[in-house]
From TrEMBL:
Comment text on domains: 2 residues (Tyr-76 and Arg-79) present in a large hydrophobic pocket are probably involved in substrate specificity. They are important for desuccinylation activity, but dispensable for deacetylation activity.
Protein name per its UniProtKB record: NAD-dependent protein deacylase
Keyword set, alphabetical order: Cytoplasm, Metal-binding, NAD, Transferase, Zinc
Cofactor: how and how many bound: Binds 1 zinc ion per subunit.
Similarity annotation: Belongs to the sirtuin family. Class III subfamily.
Cited function: NAD-dependent lysine deacetylase and desuccinylase that specifically removes acetyl and succinyl groups on target proteins. Modulates the activities of several proteins which are inactive in their acylated form.
SUPFAM superfamilies attached to this UniProt entry: DHS-like NAD/FAD-binding domain
Keyword Metal-binding attributed: yes
Protein's cellular compartments: Cytoplasm
């Protein structure tokens, strides 16, 4: 499989594997790019069809929901429908396999995601979500979790209605919204604490499929670097991240199975 890559990239994968196999504390941050090969578009991909004339500011901000709750709710119902039948790709599976392997070695592999899909969970990973969950709802006014919400987001997928009609909260009458952190909103405190601690204490930080533009998540790599960690980036396109020590410029679904195979073989 390694033979499919350029000699320069193979050398970088081997270098990264050697570094990772020798370290105990690893922190991984994933972004929309890791789910792209599962068929879930990133926000940077051009929106298609119905939604091509809308920007993120029209659809994924608290102001947008206040201005036009029906539009925002319809968009999320459309996204849920789009994501409902998507499955983890080799990148998600490789990370889950690494976490499983780490249980019997002395490695600690902390996985943090900016994604709101549940593909890491479906692959079997334990993961902290910084930006919330696509499959959960809560009241936009009193913040009460939506009553019909089953315990896990995964179980919820087959039962959730994709109806575009707005729902109202039985407690306060406010509109129900997806339990997602929109642009301009604060991150969940507990998830952010886990992420900060893992980034500050890791020896290697791996950034996968994220443009490193969305703060505060993008600051985690800097925090890791300040505390002496090496930084590895997996992304087919260059990012503004200038603190990277090893760049693996290929799709996550290609690189991760190879990288994890190398690490676990060492
Ligand atoms: P982003 O800023 O994380 O950018 C996507 C990055 O992925 C780009 O740098 C791109 O070059 C890279 N990429 C594309 N294909 C890749 C591949 N196969 N392997 C590795 N990297 C690849 O994400 P965004 O789309 O700008 O979204 C910003 C925020 O919106 C996210 O942090 C998230 O909260 C939300 N979002 C979530 C999902 C999801 O849950 N799947 C999807 C879209 C947006
Ligand atoms: Zn309410």
């Amino acid at each position: 499989m390694l033979a499919e890559l350029s000699p320069a990239l193979i050398a970088e994968v081997k270098l990264a594997a050697k570094l990772l196999a020798a370290k105990q504390h690893i922190c991984i941050l994933t972004g929309a790019g890791i789910s792209a090969e599962s068929g879930i578009p990133t926000f940077r991909d051009k929106q298609t069809g119905l939604w091509e004339n809308y920007g993120v500011e029209d659809l994924a901000t608290p102001e947008a929901f206040t201005r036009d709750p029906k539009l925002v709710w319809s968009w999320y119902q459309w996204r849920r429908q789009l994501v409902a039948d998507k499955a983890p790709n080799p990148a998600h599976h490789a990370l889950a396999q690494w976490q499983y392997h780490a249980q019997t070695s002395d490695q600690q592999v902390t996985l943090i995601t900016q994604n709101v899909d549940d593909l890491h969970e479906q692959a079997g990973s334990s993961v902290t979500h910084l930006h919330g969950h696509l499959w959960r709802n809560r009241c936009g006014q009193c913040q009460t979790p939506s009553q019909d919400q089953p315990r896990t987001s995964y179980d919820n997928r087959n039962t959730m209605s994709f109806d575009e009609a707005l729902l109202t909260c039985p407690h306060c009458g406010g509109y129900i919204r997806p339990d997602i952190v929109w642009f301009g909103e604060a991150l969940p405190i507990q998830a952010w604490q886990i992420a900060e601690e893992a980034a500050a204490n890791c020896e290697v930080f791996i950034s996968i499929g994220t443009s490193s533009l969305v703060y505060p998540a993008a600051g985690l790599a800097q925090l890791a670097k300040q505390n002496g960690a090496k930084i590895i980036e997996i992304n087919p396109d260059p990012t503004p991240n200038t603190i990277v020590d090893i760049t693996l410029a290929e799709k996550a679904g290609v690189i991760l199975p190879l990288l994890i195979e190398e690490i676990t073989a060492l």
